[in-house]
Specification:
Blueprint (H helix, E strand, L loop, with lengths): L24 E15 L2 E14 L9 E6 L3 E12 L4 E4 L4 E4 L5 E4 L2 E6 L8 E10 L7 E3 L6 E11 L2 E8 L7 E7 L2 E11 L17 E11 L2 E4 L4 H12 L8 H11 L5 H15 L1 E2 L1 E3 L10 H7 L1 E2 L1 H14 L3 E7 L19 E8 L2 E5 L19 E5 L5 E5 L9 E11 L2 E10 L1 H14 L5 H9 L6 E9 L8 E10 L3 E3 L2 E4 L21 E2 L4 E10 L4 E5 L4 E4 L3 E10 L2 E10 L3 E2 L4 H15 L3 E5 L2
């Protein structure tokens, strides 16, 4: 947005006159004011929140439940909450607020807490009113403000008041089509920036889309610098200041004893000669021996723990594992760097957003035989040489030394690296289709299967897990002789083999039998529902799948019909299916590819045409008939 006295941007979520009468709950207002004070270089920052909601019906009374989060960098004070019943002209105060620690299955220790309460006596027509203050303890964490939320809002406003010798930066996202008023004004020795918009429709996320930050209209504020006695002091003026802060945190690593770490590095590489072999061995050791657990505890969530401590305890979070790799690799002469990075859930660039909001992860970057290798040991199954899938396309901030850094992008891995090769032999025994199948998975195809098997299988049997994951044949499919090879071997494809018995699969009419060789119908349920769809479809990684399916024609039968070649060719996705007949065997060759990480809105129709064509192809059957 341009800095000007007042301006307007139009966007599709917002209109100047909006009827929300069909809604169950709305916000009448969502206002936030940030007060920035500065005294002798010390900032005192307070956010004041004021929200009012209204129940238009009694269908969604769960909106009466409220939770206010805070952590080591913030404090919540002066909560005032009550319900107002207009028909009775009655105000009922919230009289009990519970403080809880927030737990997450992926977090070992978190400093995140919340204030929780329920607005009393809510019903259709009831209004909820909430005011509270949030104390910001570090000037680098002003956070973001969302103009839209999950329900409609009649009045949305953000304002910030700050001394005129303080410079405030801001950058907005997803607002180019929005009607947002901006006002800049002076108040004594202070300045005030205000953004306001009325009648914002509710924002709803969509299945298989990017994170809401890619679409939700929001703004990030940050303190750039301040002047004192003619001298400028930078806080987050640009990415140089962000890196300077990150570097200062790295300097605080309590690294007392590295002898054990260095000994391990020497031991795992002593029989190896090339840098590539040594880097891979160290990466694999950290993956296999250090358990990933997340820590979110104030600055402890930003400062890596010592490599020696991580080695002793055998666990650590992303920054701990990145720092351990840094110490081990550099000790054996491999150039490596601690690297800050945001996952694909963050749509930000270091040059645009020089604040801690830009990233949420840490990896290691190694320069091995002139190749740049991104090493993320938090992904226990990704092979050496491939970045974690969720960091593809993202900017990486490499800490070269105390004062210098470099920003480079993590490349997208080609579909050729992520493959599934499926070979199947089919035969008929009475009315049962017998299948012997082997799957060979590489790259992210392997990582996805092993991750799912490890973390989602739970107490399911292997047959139950494969049945729900692969969904082969029909609901009568039974698995037998299941085996896995190279489950823990990162350098070789994962091999999964099994036998299937599929009852009631073939259809017989008179002397003809119809058999569909497409027991695997990958992507058949991937059609995008265009009704109300607004945002792009997210794809985790590019891939290729090759199927070779051989059907052995039973004795006394002959092939009377095999489908013609069917295909769909698009630069980003497509398929090709062919059938051949030779020596009483019908062989189907099927090839499916996805070469994009996103399907944009203007490609929805094309994508759906692809899925429809693939689904139609899946319905084609071979026909065999008895020989008279």
């Amino acid at each position: 947005m341009k800095i000007s006295f007042i301006f307007t941007l139009l966007f599709p979520f917002i209109v100047f006159s909006q009827n929300f009468s069909d809604e169950d709950f709305i916000y009448m207002k969502r206002h936030e004011h940030i007060d920035v004070k500065l005294n002798k270089g010390d900032f005192k920052i307070t956010k004041s929140f004021s929200e009012s909601g209204k129940f238009l019906t009694s269908k969604k009374l769960y909106f009466a439940n409220e939770s206010i989060g805070f952590d080591s960098f913030t404090a919540v004070e002066d909560i005032r909450a009550y319900t107002y019943l207009p028909d009775e002209d009655k105000k009922i105060e919230v009289d009990y607020i519970e403080t809880k620690r927030v737990f997450d299955n992926g977090i070992f220790y978190s400093d995140q807490e919340s204030k929780n309460f329920t607005f009393p006596a809510v019903k259709a027509g009831a209004e909820t009113h909430l005011e509270y203050n949030e104390i910001i303890k570090d000037p680098r964490f002003l956070g973001l403000f969302r103009f839209g939320t999950f329900v409609p809002t009649e009045s949305t406003k953000l304002s910030i008041e700050f001394p005129s010798h303080v410079s405030i930066g801001y950058i907005d996202f997803n607002t180019s089509d929005y009607s947002i008023n901006f006002k800049e004004e002076a108040k004594g020795e202070n300045k005030i920036y205000t953004w306001s918009v009325n009648n914002v429709k509710g924002f709803q996320g969509e299945a298989q889309s990017e994170s809401v930050l890619y679409y939700l209209p929001h703004i990030i504020l940050y303190i750039k610098s301040y002047e004192d006695k003619g001298k400028q002091y930078n806080i987050l003026n640009d990415v140089n200041d962000l890196y300077k802060w990150y570097s200062s945190l790295v300097d605080r690593i309590d690294e007392k004893e590295l002898k054990k770490v260095h000994t391990i590095a020497e031991d795992v590489t002593k029989s190896l000669t090339t840098q590539s072999e040594k880097a891979e061995a160290i990466f694999n050791w950290v993956q296999d021996n250090i358990t990933y657990v997340a820590f979110e505890d104030g600055l402890g969530g930003f400062i890596p723990r010592s490599a020696s401590s991580v080695c002793d305890k055998r666990y650590g979070d992303c920054k701990d594992m990145a720092n351990l790799l840094y110490e081990m690799l550099n000790h054996v002469g491999i150039e490596s760097y601690r690297t800050w990075i945001g996952t694909r859930d963050r749509p930000y660039s270091y040059l645009e957003v020089p604040t801690p909001m830009v990233d949420n992860h840490m990896i290691n970057t190694a320069i091995v035989e002139n190749d740049t290798i991104f090493l993320d040991a938090t992904d226990s199954y990704v092979p050496y040489g491939m970045p974690s899938g969720f960091t593809q396309t993202k900017e990486a901030l490499l800490g070269l030394d105390k004062d210098s850094f470099k920003i480079i992008k993590v490349p997208v891995q080609s579909a050729d690296k992520n493959t599934s090769d499926i070979k199947s032999i089919l035969s008929m025994e009475d009315d049962v289709l017998k299948v012997s199948e082997t799957r060979s998975l590489k790259g992210y195809e392997k990582v996805e299967f092993i991750s799912g098997y490890t973390y989602k299988k739970d107490d399911k049997t292997e047959e139950e897990y494969l049945n729900t994951t692969l969904t082969l044949g029909n609901n009568k499919t039974k698995y037998d002789n299941i085996s896995k090879e190279n489950f823990d071997n990162k350098n070789s494809p994962l091999i999964i083999s099994y036998d299937l018995s599929i009852d009631n699969y073939a259809k017989s009419v008179a002397n003809k039998t119809y058999i569909n060789l497409n027991i695997d119908r990958t992507l058949s349920k991937s059609k995008i529902d265009l009704k109300g769809r607004e945002f792009s479809k997210k794809i985790d990684y590019k891939f290729k799948k090759k199927f070779v399916t051989t059907f052995e024609i039973p004795e006394g039968y002959k092939a009377s019909n095999i489908p013609e070649e069917l295909s769909y060719d698009n630069p980003n996705f497509g398929f090709k299916i062919t059938h051949t007949l030779k020596d009483q065997k019908i062989t189907q060759n099927k090839f499916i590819y996805i070469k994009t990480l996103s399907v944009n809105n203007n490609e929805f129709e094309v994508w759906n045409d692809f899925i429809k064509s693939l689904t139609r192809a899946y319905k084609k059957s071979i026909t065999i008939e008895q020989i008279k």
